[in-house]
Amino acid sequence: MSPSNGTGQASLRVLNPVVARKFRPMSPAKRQPDLSKKKIGLYWNSKKHGDVALNRVKELLSQRYEGLAFEWLETGPVNEATEEWFESVRQSRLSGVVATTGD
Amino acid sequence: MVRNHAGIEELGIPVVSIVQEYFLEDAIASGAAYGLQEPAMAVVPEVFTSITAEQTRAAIDQVIEDIVAGLTKPRPEPDGHVVRKVTLHGPEEEVLTFGGKDLLACLQEMNTKFLDWGWSDGFPLVPPTEEAVREMLKGTNRTPEDVVVEKFVPGMAQATVRDIAVNAVMAGCEPQFLPLVLTAIEAMHNPEINLRMCTVSTGAHAPLFVVNGPIAGKVGVNAGSCSLGNAGPGRLSFPNVAVGRAVRLALMNVGGAYPGVLDQDTIGSPAKFSMVIAENEAMSPWEPYHVEKGFREEESAVTCFYGHSLVEIADLESDTAEALINTISLRVIGIGQTIFIPYYPVILLSPSHAQIFDRDGWTKNDIRQYLHLHCRISAEKYRRSKSLAWGHDRKWITAADSQAMIPLYERPERIDIVVAGGTSGKSAAYLGLFPKPYPVRS
User: Fold this and answer.
1) Record: contact A23-B81, CB cut-off 8 A
2) What residue numbers bound the domain in which B377 lies?
3) What ipTM was assigned to the predicted interfaces of this complex?
């Protein structure tokens, strides 16, 4: 902190209070161009009309891809996903997941 | 939710998140916090909870091409390691310089900029100069590089003593307050508290910290009248205010819980500015809260109750335990949660109320058992509240008789009682999540 030194100017030096986070971003999952005869997860955030939205996604994707199957996913009201839940999702052999978020 | 989406993507399964426009920055920040640099998203204009089912279906029709693209088109590969501030706003330099015609002008400029960048709680901040931070660090024996929490929720950045000290300076803390700030942050990260949910929820959550043990008197944390709220009279409650404010600033600048970004409160709560209290151990007829939880009386501890809905329980009339507990239960049932998030009340019992119970031979356990028994609603009302739609584990309620009374607080041992405040016959209750005292390290 430097008071005015007669030049009519002063300056204040402070530390940046915002912390930097160091991370290595993950590679995105490989996408499959054709979803016919594949299985898609519909992950509901337990909020009102999120289920309506996902059911509409199901209708529209079913019209577009032949033999497309679906699996309903939930993690309860506070959406705490356990390791067991992730393991069950892994074992479901899904080709993609459409998820509701926010409210 | 985006945290879970990132976890699924990590399994090698493509995810498309349907995100409401207002939550877009939140989704991007949440994705970054969990290593997903560019999440695939379909952005809808309105939250589904606020529109009709028909409008929801129409909103999906508008974004179905984005959903298909997110599932089938390759996503960009990230470039190596990333070092990113927990906010996208403001400069990244470690040291910032503000100029002006005099120091007051410099200070005003700093405060204006910090406000613009979202780094401020809205009140004027003390400048975190290197000298001030060095002085703050004298308040602890811990080294500046000592890690306080490995992943500060919700932004998941590592937090060191130095990082917290910078924010403690801005909050106006004195060095002797720093151990309380550090412990409060550790206590907030108690894994039993779902801190991620508390910080990013659309419901307003705020931490209430209770200080026990000799440090309260040593630092001057107010345990008497006006402990919560503004400082005063004189310096009374100043440590209460400053410690809570430091935690709040750290939640934002270290944890990334910036309002409107990761913090998505629908209305918000003034409780977020600061809620710190010391138990009034001197006037309590019972053993101190931290002793009840296994600490020795000469040890100091900080407990975090992360929740919402502080309500006053005014009862100047009751002069028996039976009458007083009736008043308390009527207020506590009023703030009870029917949706299945397991909040439990902490009763901040004023010394005069605590003494009525003690005089009539009531223990804290009697109070708990009474509240467990009397804070109930009918099964019919419970079912009508849609709580069961939340998929919780109280399935038995679906079979209960309509007029059967359902306990709001299934586990009485989780109802906490802390003696707090002055002697004017006013108690309070606050709903929190799974508190656990943490030892204060010097």
Assistant:
1) yes
2) 187-439
3) 0.86
Q: Cα(B374)–Cα(B356) distance, rounded to whole angstroms?
A: 20
Per-residue pLDDT tens over the stretch B225-245: 999 988 888 889 999 999 999
pTM for the model stands at 0.85
Measured CA to CA, the distance from residue A12 to residue B129 in angstroms comes to 8
CB atoms within 10 A of CB B377: 17
Give the residue from chain B lying closest to A89, CA to CA.
B8
Final residue before a domain boundary, out of B39, B72, B105 = B72
Q: Are residues B248 and B394 in the same domain?
A: yes
Question: Could you give the CA distance from residue B30 to residue A56 in angstroms, rounded to a whole number?
Answer: 26
Q: What is the dihedral of CA B358, B364, B370, B373, to 10 degrees?
A: -170
Chain B residues in contact with A56 (beta carbon < 8 A): 56-57, 60-61
* Domain boundary pick from B47, B72, B97: B72
pLDDT tens-place string over residues A34-66: 999 999 999 998 888 999 999 999 999 999 999
Indicate the number of domains in chain B.
2
Domain boundaries, chain A: 39-99
pLDDT at position B391 over 60: no
Using the predicted structure, report yes or no on whether residue A1 has a pLDDT greater than 60.
no
Residue B157 lies in a domain: no
Q: Six-digit token pair at B33?
A: 């916090």
